[in-house]
Amino acid sequence: MKKKVIYYRDELHEEFSEAKISPKFIDEKYRYEGGRLRPLGRGLWYHLLAKPIAWMIMKIGFGHRIVNGSILKSARKEGYFLYGNHTNPVPDAFIPTMLNFTGSVYVIVHPANVSMPVLGRVTPSLGALPLPDTKGAFKNFLKTLEHHCDRHKVIMIYPEAHIWPYYTKIRPFVADSFQFPILFHKPVYCLTNTYQKRLFFKRPRMVTYVDGPFYPDESLPRGRQKQELRDRVYETMTKRSTNNTVEYIHYEKINA
């Protein structure tokens, strides 16, 4: 069967998710912590429904396997930031939960993830933290991150920002999001999702490699720390991406 080909020009800004959603504007009125019913919704949607659904979809649908995930066990006591490549809309929502099945994960997301007509009301209870659009919203966003960090939760970030389904390399990403673990004094781990041949299935198996911890180099100025931390994570993910054994979708750059 002929392989699907996607043509691109810009690794930093192009998006290839099939979902077309008009994102809401996240200003200071957005309630990151929600109302009094948010803890109840968290318990129902995340712990009782999302976790078993995630397990079934990942294990049965994607043959998911985790390599080196045991390094996260000791880190759960203090909480940490987790970074990963963004290559599949459904698995990327579930993999952080698979890595932290007994704990809680919060995911920094594009506002589109909380803008869907029905599901958009549920995703905040699942841990979605939309990126802010105003200074006032950013202040509330930071307070929410601090709240979760103080309670030793896991914060998941996809620094590539845009979904490229089944992409087998690591796209360049900026260092901005690495300011958060420095600000809140938390360790950094990274995951690298790879695609490997699977017997009797057209869709490849997803294998997730986990690495870390990474800490900022405090001998450097604060502004340089986040870039240096980003570079080490990027290099580690790039090395892990060589474990891909199948290209389900081919990406080809257009040189304009």
TrEMBL record:
Protein name: 1-acyl-sn-glycerol-3-phosphate acyltransferase
Protein origin, superkingdom: Bacteria
